[in-house]
Specification:
The chain is an all-alpha fold. The chain has one domain: Arc Repressor Mutant, subunit A (Orthogonal Bundle). It contains eight helices and no strands. The radius of gyration is 31 Å and the shape is elongated. The chain starts with a helix and ends in an 8-residue tail after the last helix.
Length: 147
């Protein structure tokens, strides 16, 4: 980044930090913004560091692991629900479920089924139109060809 000394300084800081520490933050389920705040760096520097080191597949696997932790956490929250703060606990569960679905669609995502709608009235009208065409063809006089 020739024109941005802040990004260069942040990337240099990231290079000095152990990679496993940063990747473990992703595995804990921390967001990129939270990681940036914790390390005192900018988002662009983190994205550049990830791209330069080809860490995207590793981060994806870390997110899958984090999704499993979130799913287990929802069970803990559900088991310890408080009658006084029920709505708060339900919202916490929904948020963790949503994140788990996004981070590991294969395991926690919902399948989008194709919706089929059948209109009986539409089928009946189509059948009546077909019958009218067949009756019309069968009752029409076909002109005789002269020989």
């Amino acid at each position: 980044m020739p024109g941005n000394p802040k990004v260069r300084a942040d990337i240099a800081l990231l290079e000095d930090i152990d990679d496993e520490l940063i990747l473990s933050m992703f595995e804990e389920g921390r967001s990129k913004a939270d990681i940036c705040r914790g390390l005192g760096i900018g988002r662009r520097a983190l994205d550049t560091w990830i791209a330069d080191n080809d860490y995207e597949p590793i981060i994806t696997r870390a997110r899958v692991e984090a999704a499993s932790h979130l799913a287990c956490e929802t069970l803990t929250i559900a088991d310890s629900m408080d009658a006084d703060n029920g709505q708060r606990d339900v919202q916490r569960i929904r948020t963790r479920q949503w994140l788990a679905e996004r981070w590991d669609r294969k395991t926690y995502g919902t399948e989008k089924a194709s919706q089929v709608s059948i209109s009986i009235q539409g089928l009946r009208m189509e059948a009546l139109r077909h019958v009218e065409v067949v009756e019309q063809l069968s009752t029409d006089q076909m002109p005789k060809l002269s020989t």
